[in-house]
């Protein structure tokens, strides 16, 4: 007679698993809940809740419902949106050890753009790149760049006089040429210069692949393994072409920079400083040093030119919209700088309204409405809520800039909000520097250079030019509005054909004197 041992086996198995089941239940009971957020659907999660445009404003509306720390799940990817400066500071600054990662991107890998500082994940290699970047762009080092910035700005004033209808292109070229000289030691004098075209190609690709949701492969990663010739695989063909182009461009720029230094045509640049400082690093091979130099140099250009251009365009638009603010700034410049010279960096401590104006432009026009996303490298608990490892964390910088708890009349453009008040040692309202350049260990290392560029550009333009809305076909001033692009991660203000002319005959004389000085040098 055979005894069936199955019931005994099942009983033993159950008894063995009971402790594990009990422990799992206890752990689940103890695990804090996820932060509040919109209700998720099975499988797709919160895909339908994700804004398709105007990310900052739309997430700010959702914050009013779900709170300043909002949790979403998109196709299994946890996302956390931080709607106030306090929440961003508590998580991204105070807990930067575990919140300094970057989201993984298939397109970044396919285009082989992990060298780009902004895309690079936190770790030893990132820290090495950061140190290399920092040595050329910390506050004291940026003082050495002021002569290059000043010359580029004065050339800009001359170009505006020659062709004010091309103002947008002139502003773009000014910062591009400044960074080309500082980073590579290459003097780019014309927008059709081949080196300018090269770096613009890299910038276009980096901005394109950073747009969330643009490429299906980011949501369905296995598509990367399909052949590029298949229908619907345009993303892969695009990435492979970008990879080939960018490698060629990085090599060309690097060799041109080294050659310029060897021939004595350039002073110390970002590229040459990295090469010189890396010779003492015994753990770096020659190829690793060259790769780091190419990556950090190109990162310095890309990250700097796009954001600075957008803010400066916003400045011009806001001056045309607010003639009373423009006049007040010009009166301060006349009183401090006078009528017989152009402003320089030594004037900055004596121009409080110009400094307040720069801060208000930074606050009012947020270039990156959702900042640059971070990623958690381990689980975190914040205010009783659990934030899982691998969560993409987005600071809603646009919402912070419009927070009524931080700013009175937050929707209005008011530079005077940043003027010191009698008896107060700090700004009466939060300095936008606190959030405009990022958070924690991922804060923008080029912020000191950008701030200096914005100051000298705004001060120089306002000292000699008057900016007004364009004149329409009917002979009257056109009505213009503060509008900006909303489809991309980067926000660009709408530009018009502004009526920008010298304020006076004396102002025109100062510009012409600059022209003569530049012609004499050539």
From TrEMBL:
SUPFAM superfamilies tied to this protein: Cytochrome P450 (SSF48264)
Co-factor(s): heme
Protein's pathway: Secondary metabolite biosynthesis
Subcellular location per the Swiss-Prot or TrEMBL entry: Membrane
Annotated keywords: Heme, Iron, Membrane, Metal-binding, Monooxygenase, Oxidoreductase, Transmembrane, Transmembrane helix
InterPro entries with a match to the protein in the record: Cyt_P450, Cyt_P450_CS, Cyt_P450_E_grp-I, Cyt_P450_sf, Cytochrome_P450_fung
Segments passing through the bilayer: 6-25
Membrane topology recorded in Swiss-Prot or TrEMBL: Single-pass membrane protein
Main location (coarse class): membrane
Record-linked CDD domains: CYP64-like
GO molecular function per UniProt: heme binding; iron ion binding; monooxygenase activity; oxidoreductase activity, acting on paired donors, with incorporation or reduction of molecular oxygen
Any one cellular-component term (Gene Ontology): membrane
PROSITE patterns: CYTOCHROME_P450
Annotated heme binding sites: 444
Family the UniProt entry places it in: Belongs to the cytochrome P450 family.
Protein name (database record): Cytochrome P450
Species of provenance: Dichomitus squalens
């Amino acid at each position: 007679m055979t005894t069936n041992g199955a019931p005994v086996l099942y009983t033993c198995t159950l008894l063995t698993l009971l402790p594990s089941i009990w422990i799992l239940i206890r752990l689940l009971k103890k695990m804090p809940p996820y932060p509040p957020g919109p209700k998720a659907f099975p499988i797709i999660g919160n895909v339908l809740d994700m804004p398709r445009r105007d990310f900052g404003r739309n997430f700010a509306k959702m914050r009013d419902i779900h709170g300043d720390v909002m949790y979403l799940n998109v196709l299994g990817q946890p996302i956390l949106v931080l709607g106030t400066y306090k929440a961003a500071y508590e998580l991204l600054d105070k807990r930067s050890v575990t919140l300094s990662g970057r989201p993984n991107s298939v397109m970044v890998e396919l285009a082989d753009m992990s060298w780009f500082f902004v895309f690079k994940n936190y770790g030893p290699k990132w820290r090495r790149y950061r140190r290399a970047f920092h040595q050329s762009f910390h506050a004291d080092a940026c003082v050495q760049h002021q002569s290059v910035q000043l010359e580029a700005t004065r050339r800009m004033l001359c170009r505006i006089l020659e062709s004010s209808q091309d103002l947008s292109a002139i502003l773009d070229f000014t910062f591009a040429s400044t960074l080309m000289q500082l980073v590579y030691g290459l003097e780019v004098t014309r927008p059709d210069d081949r080196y300018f075209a090269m770096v613009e190609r890299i910038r276009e690709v980096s901005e394109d692949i950073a747009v969330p949701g643009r490429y299906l492969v980011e949501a369905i990663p296995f598509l990367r393994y399909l052949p590029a010739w298949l229908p619907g695989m345009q993303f892969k063909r695009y990435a492979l072409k970008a990879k080939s182009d960018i490698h060629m461009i990085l090599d060309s720029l690097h060799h041109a920079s080294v050659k310029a230094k060897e021939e004595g045509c350039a002073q110390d640049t970002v590229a040459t400083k990295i090469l010189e400082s890396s010779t003492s690093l015994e753990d770096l091979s020659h190829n690793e040093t060259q790769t780091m130099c190419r990556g950090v140099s190109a990162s310095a250009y890309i990250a700097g030119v796009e954001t600075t251009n957008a803010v400066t365009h916003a400045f011009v638009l806001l001056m045309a919209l607010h003639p009373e603010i423009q006049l007040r700034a010009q009166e301060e410049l006349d009183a401090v700088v006078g009528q017989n010279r152009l402003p320089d960096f030594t004037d900055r401590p004596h121009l409080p309204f110009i400094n307040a104006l720069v801060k208000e432009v930074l606050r009012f026009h947020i270039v990156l409405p959702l900042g640059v996303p971070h990623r958690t490298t381990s689980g975190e608990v914040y205010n009783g809520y659990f934030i899982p490892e691998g969560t993409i964390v987005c600071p809603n910088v646009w919402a912070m800039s419009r927070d009524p708890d931080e700013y009175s009349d937050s929707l209005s453009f008011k530079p005077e909000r940043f003027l010191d008040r009698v008896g107060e040692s700090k700004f009466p309202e939060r300095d936008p520097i606190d959030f405009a350049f990022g958070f924690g260990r991922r804060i923008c290392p080029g912020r000191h250079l950008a701030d200096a560029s914005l100051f000298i550009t705004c001060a120089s333009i306002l000292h000699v030019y008057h900016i007004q809305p364009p004149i329409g076909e009917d002979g009257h001033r056109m009505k213009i509005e503060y509008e900006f692009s909303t489809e991309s991660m980067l926000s660009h203000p709408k530009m018009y054909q502004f009526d920008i002319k010298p304020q006076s005959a004396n102002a025109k004389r100062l510009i012409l004197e600059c022209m003569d000085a530049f012609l004499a040098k050539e």
